Amino acid sequence: MRRIEYKTDRQLAQMARAGLITSQALDAAVAAAAPGVTTAQLDQAFRQVLAEQSAGSNFLGYYDYPATICTSVNDEVVHGIPGDRTLVEGDMISIDGGATVQDEKGKTWHGDSARTALIGEVSQARRELSEITRAALWQGIAAAASARKVGEIGLAIEAFVRREAGDNYGIIEDFVGHGIGSSMHMAPDVLNYAARDLGPRLKKGMALAIEPMLVTGSIETVTLQDGWTIKTTDGGDACQWEHSVAFHSEGIWVLTAEDGGAEELSKLGVTVKPIPA
Ligand code: MF3
Ligand code: CO
Ligand code: CO
Prior knowledge:
By secondary structure, the chain is of the alpha+beta class. It has one domain: Creatinase/methionine aminopeptidase superfamily (Creatine Amidinohydrolase, Alpha-Beta Complex). It is built from 5 helices and 16 strands. The strands form 5 sheets. A 5-stranded antiparallel beta sheet has the order 9-8-10-15-16. It has a 3-stranded antiparallel beta sheet with strand order 1-3-6, sandwiched between helices. It has a 3-stranded antiparallel beta sheet with strand order 2-13-12, with no helix packed on it. It starts with 8 loop residues before the first helix and ends in an 11-residue tail after the last helix. The model has no long low-confidence stretch (mean pLDDT 98). Bound molecules: 2-amino-4-trifluoromethylsulfanyl-butyric acid and cobalt (II) ion (CO) (2 copies).
């Protein structure tokens, strides 16, 4: 059994540094996303912010992954590799990236976050898919703030998606969220859908990456020849949003949001608390 890593507030504060840089680098990649731009150029934009902030990349070299972000367009679900694909008007692209920082002991701390960008004028169907996925992520984070068990996050995400969209959307089950800390992927699994087993207790000291993936068709996925890109088998659209969230001594803080999630979570009746210094 993989063990859960429980962090001190000081360690979570280091993770907040990594999270903030992740957010700033995503800002740059999203800002660069436009018709005529290649996905490799988004990787360059992200990479440049990491360099400016003297941060590392947890994606680059991960099982030999060749870039600092994943760029997944339209029917691609996750792990699309940046390259010479040119974005065109009407595309939707999820950009997933992470930064690492080192603490005074030389220990590495990770951030991981994804957003979906809409390229130029985009269909109402795609705009809705992105908006519901984004909102579902915040519902999951809000539920986490008072959850007893990790699985309540997936319950809340699925309940929200069903309430908003009935059975019009599927929630991907082949990939899940995860604990995060001194590695990018750690115990426990964080399901983005409802499951009977609610998993471990959600305790102070945890940090979790919550990352719902919604699709317009079947949740069945296939891996492309490149060994990385995951797309929907039926060609339906897919969308992902992700944040890394800290559960510290005084409450929760969204590590990969500039404001710790204050604005979005206040709409859901949740107050975030800064990590005590
Ligand atoms: N960041 C992804 C996740 O949300 C995983 C990326 S794996 C990589 O879990 F190899 F592409 F870096
Ligand atoms: Co990610
Ligand atoms: Co993740």
